Amino acid sequence: MANKAQIIKGFLEGFVLEVLSKEPLFTHEIIERLDTMGYKNLSEGTIYPLMLRLEAQSFIVYTKVPNPLGPMKKRYEITKDGFEELANIKAIWAEFRTISDDILGGK
Predict the structure, then answer these.
(1) Residue 43 predicted with pLDDT over 70
(2) What are phi and psi of 85, to 5 degrees?
(3) Across the beta sheet with 25-26, what order do the strands follow?
(4) Helix 80-104 to helix 12-22 angle, to the nearest 10 degrees?
(5) CB under 8 Å to 107, separation ≥6 — which residues?
(6) How far apart are CA 89 and CA 25, in angstroms?
(7) pLDDT higher than threshold 90 for residue 60
(8) Which residues contact residue 47 at a Cβ distance below 8 angstroms, ignoring those fewer than 6 apart?
């Protein structure tokens, strides 16, 4: 049986870049946005390593923002390289969707 969670997790990078393409967000806001869009039960343990990878690849940057309740918070935004990566992900998705529709009979 296919593991739905693993299949969806493979698209998480694109999902995060997509929500950041709209506006800068804090990590908890990214999780909330994805939850409202249908990506349920995304944990901080999953999102934080991804944010570090995206930052290391120069796809996102962050600004530290004061937090009255504790340490500074990071507000993430997508970079020019991140927009290019998002376009690549969307192109790959379109190709994958066409192939899967042809093979699995989606159309």
Answers:
(1) yes
(2) -65, -40
(3) 25-26, 70-78, 60-67
(4) 130
(5) 101
(6) 20
(7) yes
(8) 16, 27, 30, 31
Residue type, 38: G
Tally of domains in the chain: 1
Residue 1 has pLDDT above 60, yes or no: no
Per the model's pLDDT, the better-predicted residue between 72 and 40 turns out to be 72
- What proportion of the chain, given as a percentage, has pLDDT over 90? 65
CB atoms within 10 A of CB 16: 28
50-56's contacts with Cβ under 8 Å and 24+ in sequence apart are 50/12, 50/13, 50/16, 51/16, 51/27, 51/76, 53/13, 54/13, 54/16, 54/17, 54/82
Domain carrying residue 92: 15-99
Which structure tokens are listed for 64?
Answer: 């530290």
Instruction: Give the domain CATH number at 41.
Output: 1.10.10.10
The answer to whether the CB of 46 falls within 8 A of the CB of 27 is no
What is the rounded distance in angstroms from the CA atom of residue 5 to the CA atom of residue 21?
A: 24
